[in-house]
Design a protein that fits this description.
Blueprint lengths: L3 H5 L2 E2 L2 E2 L11 E2 L14 E2 L16 H10 L12 H8 L4 H11 L7
Antiparallel strand pairs: 1-2, 3-4
């Protein structure tokens, strides 16, 4: 549903490493890659969304993950970076059971620093 790993998995020579780095983050998105954003936007780096408790979202509660997905607000109350904060429009219409299933799936992603 979310196509999470398309952005949150690092790429080498334009190819995502789904075998060794699934969800590790680190992909850079610049203004040249993302159309429609204000020229002041400097870009973003995809976060680690593995189950790692420090580097990823392993210590986040289900409620915190759902809030990030549906409102664009991080665990610590910070607004998520563009383009992730704009993806909320896709998640906010999900049923509670589908959103819970997505969070449960994210928890299965092996922890990576």
């Amino acid at each position: 549903m979310g196509h999470c790993m398309g952005c949150h998995t690092p790429r080498t020579q334009g190819i995502s490493d789904f075998t060794n780095s699934l969800g590790k983050g680190g992909s850079r998105f610049s203004i040249a890659l993302v159309k429609g954003y204000p020229s002041a936007w400097q870009g973003a780096i995809a976060s680690n969304i593995t189950s790692h408790p420090q580097a990823g979202i392993g210590a986040w509660s289900d409620t915190e993950i759902k809030r990030a997905l549906t409102t664009g607000i991080s665990r610590n109350g910070r607004e998520l970076n563009t383009p992730m904060k704009d993806h909320c429009r896709y998640f906010c219409g999900m049923s509670e059971s589908d959103l819970s299933a997505l969070v449960a799936w994210l928890r299965t992603v092996p922890p990576l620093e």
